[in-house]
Amino acid sequence: MALVEVKKLSKEYKRGVETVHVLRDLDAAIPEGDFLALMGPSGSGKSTLLNLIGGIDKPSSGTIDVGGQRIDNMPERKLTQWRAQHVGFVFQLYHLMPMLTAARNVELPLLLTGLSRSERKQRVAAALALVGLSDRAGHKPKELSGGQEQRVGIARAIVSDPSLLLCDEPTGDLDRKAGDEILDLLDGLNKEHNKTVVMVTHDPHAAARAKRTLYLNDGLLGTEPEA
Amino acid sequence: MKYLPLVLSSLSRKKLRTLFTLLSIFIAFLLFGYLAAIKAAFTSGVEVAGVDRLIMTDKITIINLLPYAYKNRILATEGVDAAVQSTWFGGYYQQPRNTFAQFPVVAEEYLEIYPEIVLPDEQRRAWLEDRGSAIIGRALATRFDWQVGDRVPILSPLWRNKDGKNIWEFDIAGIFDAGKEGFDTSGMLFHHEFFRQGRAFGEGLVGWYIIRVTDPDQSEDVARRLDGQFANSSNETRTVPEKAFMQGFLNQIGNIGAIFSAIIGVVVFTLLLITGNTVAQSVRERTSELAVMSILGFSRLRLLSLVFIESFFLAIVGGGLGLLVAQLLVESGGDPTNGFLPAFFIPGEALWAGVFLVLGVGLISGAFPASRALRMQHVDALRRAA
Amino acid sequence: MNFTWFSQVAAVTGVSLRELPSRWVSSAVAVFGIAGVVMVMVGILSMAAGFRAALSETSDPRVAMVLRASSTSELDSGFSREDTLVIAESELIARGEDGSLISSELYVVVDVARKSTGTSSNVPLRGVKPVAMDVRGNVRIAEGRMFSPGLNEIVVGSGARNLFAGLDVGSTVTWGTNTWTVVGIIEAGGGVPESEIWADLHSLQSAYRRGSSVQTVRARLASEDDFQSFKDSLTGDPRLNVSVIRERDFYADQSRLINGLITGVGYFVAVLMGLGAIFGAVNTMYTAVASRMREIATWRALGFKSSAVFISVMTEALTLGLIGGLVGALIAYVVFNGFQVATMNWTSFSQLTFAFAVTPGLIKSGVLYALLMGLIGGLLPGLRAARLPITVALREL
Questions:
Q1: pTM for the structure as a whole
Q2: C159 touches chain B (CB under 8 A)
Q3: Residue A129 in 3-state DSSP?
Q4: Fewer CB within 10 Å: C terminus or N terminus of chain A?
Q5: Is B252 in contact with C344 (Cβ distance < 8 A)?
């Protein structure tokens, strides 16, 4: 049973008078426990697809099914709740709150739960330990290296224990060594914690760490770079 | 309050800006309170005027005197409960710029007609017993730092005494407070008998009468009846409710209230515009942060309330402190004229208006950024940040 | 400092000023804030200036006033006819076509309704002889004619005519048992007589049963410098018990309290509000600097001096201040200048009309204050821009 299933998915938007078709009648399935790399040239729609699966963008037509729930027609309020419970996001530019410490950043998603203060503290500590940053809990993003910032970003993505992890160019702004550490971390989360990981990247080296790679080209999905 | 760190962190993002914003809100409300007090100083006489009191003056002009003989006829008039005469003494202390109001009155009658005068019992007794003594208002006592027991010389250019001098001396028997906020405590009251026996001229004449009616609803009829009695005499009278009398005075000063209201309006509006812009700007700069939080699952309602908590925090802390400091400043005698104003306080309604304005500031300065947060598209917001 | 430095400043400043419109919202807020402060300040102070002008500045320094010793106002002064004759003996009094320029005057207060509210006000009614105009020097008939001696005719100050009801030429008014006809309107360059009503001295004396007594004597001296000798000769005269004061000083004393109150409130409000406006300007300039971060770094990387960058920020801030100041002063001028009001002159218990005066001096200080706000507002952001490390700034955004 696939965790994510999209059918006849289309996304278009207007740029001035012309209509741009980003995705066209796309079908795809991502099984539970998968570690999928999404590749493709700039503007091919890989980030759009990721955003659609994560419920932060709405398709023009087609259906998106995640964990047995249709999210394409979910009202905004429910979708927001759904995101908080089921999806973790990792961004290229980390998007940490600059004024909050690493621990406070990680704690953000937990504020939406009914957990008590001590429970939240425990979970944050566990997530930070998992990404190997226990000793940096009190630091602000400015005081961390890029790799460390991204690890805080990952800790924030997993702290509420979602089954699906969506990563948009997670190593795009990092050097090779730091990038490898992030990929190791994602790999571990996939294998040891059974997270389904979808990663958009344009770096073949990063894609090679995934279980499989799909290529988006001209709105269509394929298993080969040149469709 | 698990969101508190979140709000505090966004406020501390640009500490200098937050401080400036707080300070401008603070100043806006400090000025609001202070100007309201000045406005009240000019207008409170009308507010505190007794509904059961009438003022009778000469019909042609207030500076003409009335016969003392009128008093019994006033008292005999139907609907009149009590009456007391008073006169403009027009004196000053040491030099002309120290002018203040002094009135020779009949002590027992005056205190009864003006229950607003709050005087400790022993001081009241001392004043009633000593015909050469006077009582002074709290504001006046503060102005010249006078104490009970002081002997003060007052020079009245209007009234020469039998020694051929214009200097009159009074022992201060008591200091009265206002039993009602806004009641004038900038003046001095002394005994009419002392005045009558001491003055070199003007025998049989007094300045005006303060008349208490039995039924306030009938006061217009009583006034008409009184003026009718003295019509076609050499001293025709005009009797008006105390409120109208005060209002007339106020109108003579000019439309002070309106001028001050206009100033308050411009001041507050200008400062709040500046504030609103600052808050809006700081939220605009954080659009991508709001987008991230929304992606993490913060509902728009929750983001909205975060923005509002922030704007209300600024408004309440800055505005609340401003009103508080204004109140303290006014209470500790920040009267810019140093005692010339008959009363100096922030009226209750003005304080309430200030509180509502504080909340309004929070609401309005938060509304624009909040509506932005509400309309924000995740994808656009993130792209702008990238 | 040399030519290249100036061209650097010119280049950077030119760009920053050209970009001003693109940041128009926050620039407009800064301008608006400064304009608001200047408007309020100039507005309040123009009230004080008008009050001052009406009371003392229009009074000729050659006019001396004689009152009974220890009197503080015309109301409580008084002289017999004999006293006035003694005063008139002075050699120092100027001579006009019809004899000595000396005016004995009676001063009473009458009730007149205000046009705006309909409530009664105390307006001064002055009994004079026609010579009173020449004694003051600045009083002229603007409409109608002077009253005729011996008749119940009055002339009305233009300010009083505008603010109080029923005082136009041709109307009649009744005070007590006497009825008076308005035959003329007088002007006095904005001075006190414009608030008053003048009647013939003898008519007023008989109407108010004052016999031949008067309250004050005004004399026009041959020279301004004669005042002290005139004063000494009268106060030293054993037949008299008088005090002598220049008319303009007499009025200045009366205006001191109100003038001080208005001026005090005006500066208090202006200073506090100015702080608020400075915050607005600082904020705007920080935003301006932030949005120009990359541009500024580029200038610096090209070798432009940091002082040129600093000057460009300051110029922008001062431009905002100047615009705000001019706008505020202009609004104040349009709204307030000439706005006529009447207020109580506490010492004489009567109405004084005056017009708000937005003087060139006030406009100047308003604009200077606006520039000061701009200057302070630009200082910190300017320093930040000048100190910006080039590499950091290039990486920003």
A1: 0.74
A2: no
A3: helix
A4: N
A5: yes
